[in-house]
Amino acid sequence: MSAVGNLDPATSSIDQAVRANAVPFRGGGRWLWGGLAAGLLGTAGLVAGLSLDATQVAFSWLVAYTWALTIVLGTAAFLMACHTMGATWPTAIRRLGEAIVAVMPLLALMVIPLLLGLSRLYPWMHPDAVSDAHVRELVRHKLPLMNRPFVVARSALYVVVWGGVCWGLRHYSLASDGPRGRDRTGRLQAFSALLLPALGITGSWAAFDWVMSLSPDWYSTMFGLYVLAGGFLGGLALLVILTVDAQSKGRLHGILPSHHYALGRLLLAFVVFWAYVAYFQFFLIWIADKPLEARWYLDRVHGGCAWVSGFLVFGQFLLPFFLLLPYAFKWRPRGLRLIGWWLLLAHYIDVHWLIAPARGRAAPVFHWLDGAALLCVGGFAVAFAVWCQRGHALAATADPHYPQALRYHSK
């Protein structure tokens, strides 16, 4: 019998998947041009909105930017956690996560409109204009920390750290591709273990600076974790969508039902984790019963925002929790993809719920400029991610653990 005939069928199929997945990605043309078109359309809407309501443009931009940024940071945290733990099975889908974090250079530039709009967003920029004397005194007390030069400097530090993290994750992974590639597994593990705390700290600080300070009379030590938990969940949701789509289009071979099941378990775990953080942040403020702290929630559970609060309880916790809870559902790629799209929507509404009420109860809950900002940020981000991925394989086939990742089985 020939040597070929002696090959284990499972080994042969894995070898075939490795060879097929090593082909550089050349597709995504529709997403590239569609993203550019959406981005240009959104930009036109924002430019028109500047002459109508520049303050609303600033708020809408902050919502869309925070939504996209937290997804990228959440994906980076997932990749770094996998490298630090030496997890094997995520190697099968790691390159898709690296395509997401490749957007970070674009998001680093997109922080500029946010910084240009500081005076329209944050009360600490105009402490004398605060009508409530007690709140005005609180704002003045925070001026050594919350002032334009210091906030701009911290923001620059944040994007430098995030850019370095995302660049390193992608650079060391791509360095292993090609005939002259070298194994970078150990370097990725050390890099991730060293910088994962920095990612969490800067992400929390940015949440305090850019989102929590919209209401300078309110604070929560859990707020940064709440924002990052939502971003981590959003990053997992997007990774599920990309995995299922790439496999269904024949661009990612060797993915097993066990990989989908593992992603489904992670989705379920972090749906619960996000709800846990959200509940205990609310619970601690409720039992303290301080008027200044309670007012932040009252602004979000009364008036037009009431239905948004109800949606988050149902849409970002109860519905995905009960759908993902059954064992069988987590083995269904199409069902997981639908849940992924739903959680991306829920994460946007969650971020909007955090930011938009700071404009005041008289402002509309949702504004057409929110859609324009989302098209601009999301469209250009999608186009940039596709453009960065072109010419590179959709799987880290040169990683020594990749064949083992394709053998992953779970019960």
Explain what this protein looks like in three dimensions.
The chain is mostly helical. The chain has one domain (61-403). The chain has helices at 9-21, 29-50, 54-85, 94-101, 104-116, 118-121, 133-141, 148-174, 185-210, 223-248, 257-288, 291-301, 306-324, 333-355, 368-389, 402-406. α3 (54-85) crosses α14, α3 runs parallel beside α15 (368-389) and α10 packs antiparallel against α11 (257-288). It is globular and about 75 Å long. The two termini are 36 Å apart.
Protein traits:
single chain; 411 residues; mainly alpha; 16 helices
- Coarse structural class: mainly alpha
Question: Unreliable segments (pLDDT under 50, ≥5 consecutive)?
Answer: 1-7
Number of helices: 16
What's the SSE pattern? HHHHHHHHHHHHHHHH
Query: Radius of gyration over alpha carbons?
Result: 22 Å
DSSP strand (E) fraction?
A: under 5%
- Could you tell me the mean pLDDT? 92
DSSP E strands, number: 0
- Structurally, the number of domains stands at 1
Amount of helix? over 70%
Overall morphology = globular
Separation of the first and last Cα atoms: 36 Å
Largest sheet: none
State the gist of this model:
The protein is built from 16 helices and no strands.
Give the helix/strand layout.
Layout: H1 9-21, H2 29-50, H3 54-85, H4 94-101, H5 104-116, H6 118-121, H7 133-141, H8 148-174, H9 185-210, H10 223-248, H11 257-288, H12 291-301, H13 306-324, H14 333-355, H15 368-389, H16 402-406
Helix pairs in contact: 2-15, 3-4, 3-5, 3-8, 3-9, 3-10, 3-14, 3-15, 4-8, 5-8, 8-9, 9-10, 10-11, 10-14, 11-13, 13-14
